[in-house]
Amino acid sequence: MQDPSLLRLVCFITAFILCALWEHRAPRKTLTQNKWFRWGNNFSLMAVNSVLLATLIPVAAFQAALIAEQNQWGLFNNITLPFEITVFLCVVLLDLAIYTQHLVFHRIPLLWKLHRVHHADLDIDVTTGTRFHPIEMILSMLIKVALIFVLGVPALAVVIFEVVLNVSAMFNHSNARLPLWFDKQLRKVIVTPDMHRVHHSVIVKETHSNFGFFLSVWDIWFNTYRAQPKLGHDKVSIGVPEIRDGKEQRLDKLITQPFRYNEKPNN
């Protein structure tokens, strides 16, 4: 299987354009900050992450899957199942792993300081789905590579999962409106923008809920699901209580935030 970098890039650009147009045509919530200032810094952070990952971790998820297959490492390389079922199970298990990782990054104070950069965005829109601290991105990639080795995830499953993860992150962070009846049905299976917006509420109990990125069933099954923000989607305040200065949205501030704010998460 060929390197999927171009496919991922095309899917990313397509999903971003569609979600950005959707936000523009049917906004769910009035933004409070300068959009272009936020977008510029969020995308700059994404660029820094891309360079660091390419430089520091030469074995990315796709290459890890090829290595695992060549050496017959991992569970699914040592059991006999139809290939389609293996791919399906691996995509589901990787999504469960992302849910678990997300919950852990909220529960452990040191990891929360890193993940809080994502939550410190004072608005939530399609670019928030790309905004993560570089150290968190490196840790996430290392965890993903280790899991691929342990499970023996096929390369095709890795490609499907990474495309789904990128697209769903932009979809569920979108500041866009779905018909309420459709949202109600869709969130039974996948995370919708209204469902994930609760997770970005400044209210602590809401921040520590709705951890899913793609499948919503994990929150429902593991009792971390919260249906709506207490103040409603129009009035919910986005972000974290201790970081409210608009200057903290600058790239240099985003990178240094974990080392300048010491507040621990409240469970």
UniProtKB/TrEMBL annotation:
The chain crosses the membrane at residues 6-22, 43-67, 79-99, 141-165. It holds the Pfam family FA_hydroxylase. It is found in: Membrane. Signal peptide: none annotated. InterPro entries: Fatty_acid_hydroxylase, Sterol_Desaturase_Related. Residues 88-224 form the Fatty acid hydroxylase domain. Its EC number is 1.-.-.-. Keywords: Membrane, Oxidoreductase, Transmembrane, Transmembrane helix. It is an enzyme of class 1 (oxidoreductase). GO terms for molecular function: oxidoreductase activity. It comes from the Bacteria. PANTHER family: STEROL DESATURASE. This is Sterol desaturase family protein. It comes from Vibrio pomeroyi.
